[in-house]
Description:
Layout: H1 11-30, E1 44-51, E2 54-59, E3 63-69, E4 82-88, E5 91-97, H2 98-101, E6 115-122, E7 125-131, E8 133-140, E9 160-166, E10 169-174, H3 176-179, H4 186-211, H5 223-233, H6 242-256, H7 266-273, H8 287-296, E11 304-310, H9 316-328, E12 333-340, H10 343-348, H11 356-359, E13 367-369, E14 375-377, H12 379-382, E15 385-389, E16 401-406, H13 415-428, E17 429-437, E18 449-454, E19 457-462
Parallel strand pairs: 2-10, 5-7, 11-12, 11-16, 12-15, 16-17
Antiparallel strand pairs: 1-2, 1-8, 3-6, 4-5, 6-7, 9-10, 13-14, 17-19, 18-19
Helix pairs in contact: 8-9
Amino acid sequence: MADTTNEKPSINSVLKESLGNLQNVVSADTANVEKPDNMVVVDYKMVTFSLAGKDYAIDIMKVKEIAKAGRFTYVPNALPFVLGVYNLRGDIIPIIDLRLFFNIDMPEREYDALENMLIVSIGELTFGVVVDEIDKVVGIQKSSINPPHPLFGDINIKYIQGVVEVNNRLYILLDIEKIFGAKADKKSADEAVARMAAAAQAPKKQAAKAAAPAPKEEKVDYSFVVDSLASMRKFTASPLNDKWMQTRYKEWEKERGKDKTQLQSASDADLFLKKFYSPFSGTWWDKAYSDSIFKALPDNTAKQIVVWNPGCGKGPETYSLACVLKKRYPEAKVRIYAHEVDLLSISNAPLLSVPSDVANDWYAPYITKKANGDFTFIPEIRDSILFEYHDCANTNNLPTCDIIFARDVLSFLAESAQQTVITDFYEKLKGNGVAILGQNESLESNPKWSTNTIGTINIFGKK
């Protein structure tokens, strides 16, 4: 077990004083004490720190103290961002590296290297949180905290409580409770807490576990892989992709060995997910795949075909789909609502040039040449697509749709968001409409949807 001696910077005394001062300020404000008009009332204090050169902060009320420590005790099968457990004056606490949690590139750490830690409390749980540098305590007005924006920061917006500017420095205020699951989906939070508790208690229980008789048969548990995929690549295992997850984990176990299935890095997560993605994901389709989509599309004599394409990426898939739709419904006016949360991708998609090898393939009837010699799509194809910045997990005002084309999108949403979007799909899809998801995503477990397989394409309709 690690040494219990902590080197504490003087900011600990500031923390104690700040906690007391903050309570006094709040009490004074509650009592409606008269203050000069030019006095700024500090009713919120935060501990500031840095990660990869950016300024962050958390509510001071969540911080018990700060410490410097190293030589954390390794816990087998812990999540990749858990450095281990640490003996803090007799209390065994898990140590979380926020840099790893947010997938921030960092050099490989040495086992005994001293780390800057914030000791935080969430309910009855205590964690050590490793950061780059701990700065100071900053007092602000709570009303000065601005809401987070999806374009701001390198981390998931759900973990950001807000942003605030102080003395020309912009701080990202983290919601520490959401990071550690206290306010997250109850099932996920309970599972996360249970795993953390198991990790913290592992050293105490190891002897008892060794003495206990081995069970005759134990169900395979790959929840640690599920959590790693969620934290590293925002991939959510759910009934939507459960069949693929079970099959893939068995393959992964054979590839790596039973004792080496833990995902240790983002590269491991990418290797695990490599077989998940649909053919030609994010790129131009070849003729064989375009033909398979053509055959999967239903007959439709409507004068206008409305298509919703969330997760359109940089555009190649949407343009490919537009060409197939033009071929499949030559007399109809096609309207594709292509949505994406990556502002750069969605901004550049309408300007996309077509590589010459693609232009001379099956796309040729839909291609024209610009004055500078670049290939682009004919106006009829370009005008059929409306590229918009939009998160499909939020409500929208789309008309009812004939086709919903959302490959490999839902699995990268939280499970609650998956259900919300699937419900939205059901409400916006016409009675004779079809939904096409990723090749390893399925709505078979949902009683509202029917499933039909045409060639290699699974299509879903309303029952």
